[in-house]
């Protein structure tokens, strides 16, 4: 069965610090990968996605993620965080090989707190 | 473009009572999803609709949960009777089309259910 693991439940950083949130998945076939973000009081929204091609993908607000197929990883990065990046971040995976139901599997989420 | 609309935003009921949640997806989106999100966890799929057809309801507890999507637009998720363990956020999402190429899902604000 597919699963997604996010390495950190709670991350606290000061403004301007660099961010890397880990995400590993288990699935043997081709996958599409996503990072979603949920700001306080708001709904889930897409931060970035990987379908194919360049494994380094750029999203909104200066975020990027790198797909490393050999490590089954899709880590999220930002060189310099801002207080407004305080939110909960979810990694999600869907298998896209033949016969897959297209079910999106989410990690448990990482709460990022950025101190001003 | 209007987003996914859900109502109510909050619901408090006593155990054994029925409850219903309503979702209006983004116009033109024929795929609709209901998710359950427990505190500190990522969303988990309950049911996925392609137009009017429920194509994946394997995670829906059918003894007490039911869902419908009449005319392939709005959808209702019902719990009867509710149990204490049903306290969670119920999310609705929609995406433009189905198929092997997986599309971004757009999420609504969710309904926070508290069962006393």
Describe this protein's structure.
The complex is a heterodimer of chains A (116) and B (116). With 116 residues, chain A is mainly β. Chain A is 0% helix and 53% strand. Chain A is built from no helices and twelve strands. In chain A, the strands form three sheets. In chain A, strands 2, 5, 6, 10, 11 and 12 form a six-stranded mixed sheet that branches. Chain A is globular and about 45 Å long. The relative contact order of chain A is 0.33. The model of chain A has no long low-confidence stretch (mean pLDDT 92). Chain B is mainly beta. Chain B is built from no helices and eleven strands. In chain B, the strands form two sheets. In chain B, strands 2, 4, 5, 6, 9, 10 and 11 form a seven-stranded mixed sheet that branches. A four-stranded antiparallel sheet of chain B has the order 1-3-8-7, with no helix packed on it. In chain B, a hairpin with a 2-residue loop joins strand 5 and strand 6. Chains A and B meet through strand 5, strand 6 and strand 10 of A and strand 5 and strand 10 of B.
Helices and strands in order:
The complex is a heterodimer of chains A (116) and B (116).
Chain A: E1 3-6, E2 10-14, E3 19-21, E4 23-26, E5 31-38, E6 45-50, E7 56-58, E8 64-68, E9 73-78, E10 87-95, E11 105-106, E12 110-115
Parallel strand pairs in A: 2-12
Antiparallel strand pairs in A: 1-4, 3-9, 5-6, 5-10, 7-8, 8-9, 10-11, 10-12
Chain B: E1 5-7, E2 10-13, E3 19-24, E4 31-37, E5 44-50, E6 53-56, E7 65-68, E8 75-79, E9 88-95, E10 106-107, E11 111-115
Parallel strand pairs in B: 2-11
Antiparallel strand pairs in B: 1-3, 3-8, 4-5, 4-9, 5-6, 7-8, 9-10, 9-11
């Amino acid at each position: 069965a597919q699963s997604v693991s996010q390495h950190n439940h709670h991350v606290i950083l000061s403004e301007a610090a660099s961010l890397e949130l880990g995400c590993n998945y288990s699935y043997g076939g081709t996958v599409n990968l996503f990072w979603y973000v949920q700001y306080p009081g708001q709904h889930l929204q897409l931060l970035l996605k990987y379908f194919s091609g360049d494994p380094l993908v750029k999203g909104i607000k200066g975020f990027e993620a790198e797909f490393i197929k050999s490590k089954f990883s899709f880590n999220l990065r930002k060189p310099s965080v801002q207080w407004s990046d305080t939110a909960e971040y979810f990694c999600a995976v869907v298998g896209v090989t033949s016969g897959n139901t297209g079910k999106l599997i989410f990690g448990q989420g990482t709460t990022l707190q950025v101190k001003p | 473009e209007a987003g996914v609309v859900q109502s109510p935003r909050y619901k408090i009921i006593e155990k054994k009572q029925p409850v219903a949640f309503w979702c209006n997806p983004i116009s033109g989106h024929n795929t609709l999803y209901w998710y359950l999100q427990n505190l500190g966890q990522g969303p988990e799929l309950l049911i996925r609709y392609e137009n009017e057809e429920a194509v994946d309801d394997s995670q829906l507890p059918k003894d007490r949960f039911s869902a419908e999507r009449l005319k392939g637009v709005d959808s209702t998720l019902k719990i009867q009777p509710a149990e204490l363990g049903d306290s969670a956020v119920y999310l609705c999402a929609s995406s433009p089309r189905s198929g092997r190429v997986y599309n971004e899902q757009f999420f609504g604000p969710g309904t926070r259910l508290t069962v006393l």
